[in-house]
Structures are given as C-alpha cells and as structure tokens.
Amino acid sequence: MRLKTFHVATAAFLLSAGVSFAQSPRIWKHGVIEPKADAGLIVAGLQGGFPEKFGLKIELMNLKSDVLGLKALLAGELDSYEGGPAGAITADTRGVDVRVIGCLWPRIPHGIFVRSEITELKQLKGKAIAISAPNAFPDLLARAALKKAGVDPADVQFANLGGDADRFKALMANVVQASVSSGEFLAVAPPEVKQLFAGRELMPDFLRTCAMTSGKNIKERRDDVVRFLAAEISGARWAAKNRDDVIKLTRDFAGIKPEDPRPAFIYDESFKHGDYDPDMNVSPEKMAWLQNLLVETGDVTKPVDPTKTYDADLRKEALELIAKTP
C-alpha cells in the first residue's frame, strides 16, 4: 500500500467551496476504498481546499478493502480510514481500541447481483459469490443475507475478487453466479445480469461506510481528529448541493469516461434513498444492531457495550468548529 496525494483540478469545485487556505497545514493520512462511481461523494471533503480550511493536508491511500484499512490504521500507516464499521467493532471486542467517529453512508447502496436465471438466494447453494476480502463489508453482507434466507454460508463458495468493478465483471463473465456490488452497476447491467435485491431493503440498519480512527489518535491528536471530521462534513454538505460538480469530480478522480452513466445514477440514487448523510451522524441503534449481527455470524464472541465502539463527542466538536470557521 502506498500513500498518494490527489489534486483535483476542477475550478468549479474550488469556487463553489469558497474556502480559505491555512499556512503550513498538518498532515493527515486517510484511507478510502478504491475510487468508483461514488468517488466524488466520498472525497468531497478531502480535496479542493476543505482540509486546508481547517489546517490539514490530507494524503489519501487507495485500499482494496476496509480490512486493509484497519490493518494500516493499527500499523500506524494511516490516521483514519473509511469503510464498513464491522471490522472496528470486532477489533473493539478483542481489546483493540478503534472508534467510529462519523458515518457518511448510513445505508447500503450495494446489493446482490446474480445471473438472470437465479430468482432467490436459496438457489445460490453450491454456487460462487464474489466478495472482497474475508470479513470485509461485502463478505459480511453476503453471509448475513444468506443466513436470513435460510442458506448456510458454508454451502456456497466465496471468491475474493477485489473491488466492485472486478466482482461485477466476474459475474458478467459467468466466473461467479452472484456478486456483492454497488448499485451503480444497475445503470450498465446487461440483460443476463440483474440485482436480486437491494441491501437497503433487506437490511435497512446495516451501516455501509463510516470514518474510523484509533483510540491512540483520539488521545494524542484529538484536535486533528476534530479538524479532519470538520473538513469531511463541510465537503459532504457541499456535495449535497452541487450535483454536477460532484459528478465531474467523480469522473476526474476515478478516471470515468463522460459517456458512463454510473456517476450520475449513483448520486441520484444515494440521495433518493437516504443512503448518504452529509452530517455524518453516528446511530447508536445501528451500531448496536451491527454488533448483534456480528454475534449471529460468529465474528464476535464477546460483545462489548456498543457505546464503547464509537465517539459521538468528536462529531459534536467538529460541528462547533464548522460553525465558528468562516
């Protein structure tokens, strides 16, 4: 894994943001899942001047999975990362101090895509499902969905095939018969592939993406954690009001061609269904629900007080900082 600093050369983005730049900003290393059609929504607060407004310079690391983000955080290679909070919760139950500090995507834009001949999850018994790394968000969603449908996850084959695009391509090539992929692929799915169900419908309390940092960072760099959250929330609020600029930012950042309909599709879907939360609220109920799910799947054997898995005060401090920063 290698850190990269990305510079978005989008004049409209900078002008719309109306930001001011601080002198000698402090470095903050943040990990995000490899950019795809929702990239603009994810990095809006990490580019274009928002970090500098709050005295930070963000260095981004592209991650294949949130499992790698957790490992990089614990190794000190990252200061924070964006991903499914299941890994952080599991770490906390094992005595590792990782905290959720804000959730940008409180609902799942993902779903399980299948070959057209598949009409229910029970038909996946004995078949291959494309996920990312074991215990990452796509893996957890697939196993939980199978159990809800009465299918033992041990009766299917899980194929670790990397990012959303790689998993979807494997499904189209019939290498696998199902794939956990972002809903953006509904915009380009051929007739032989369909979404069997949307994750938000099957599991409305499943948290897709949150920002996480270590207890050590909260203790030793609390001011920087608050500044990071302030930047991300400010950018997310800007993204919610600037559809066309965000779509352009997505295309620039992820290298997506102008004729590709996915960036516009996933932007509209995310706000239509409430998948995206610019204020990055942390739901205590959803955090508790997720830990209970991890107990059911066997990932957690010794549950902890759910309030120990997140820090809501940091977000409150970030909102106060935003309010008093011109």
Can you walk through the features of this model?
By secondary structure, this protein is an alpha/beta fold. The chain folds into 2 domains: 224 residues, 3-Layer(aba) Sandwich (D-Maltodextrin-Binding Protein, domain 2), CATH 3.40.190; 93 residues, Periplasmic binding protein-like II (D-Maltodextrin-Binding Protein, domain 2, 3-Layer(aba) Sandwich). The protein is built from 14 helices and 11 strands. It has a 6-stranded mixed beta sheet. It has a 5-stranded mixed beta sheet with strand order 8-7-9-6-10, with helices on both faces.
Gist?
The chain has helices at 11-17, 39-43, 50-53, 66-74, 86-93, 137-148, 164-172, 199-202, 215-220, 222-241, 243-254, 262-272, 284-297, 312-324; strands at 3-4, 26-33, 56-63, 80-83, 98-105, 110-115, 128-131, 157-160, 178-182, 193-198, 209-214. By secondary structure, the chain is of the alpha/beta class. The chain has 2 domains: 3-107 and 206-324, D-Maltodextrin-Binding Protein, domain 2 (3-Layer(aba) Sandwich), CATH 3.40.190.10; 110-202, Periplasmic binding protein-like II (D-Maltodextrin-Binding Protein, domain 2, 3-Layer(aba) Sandwich).
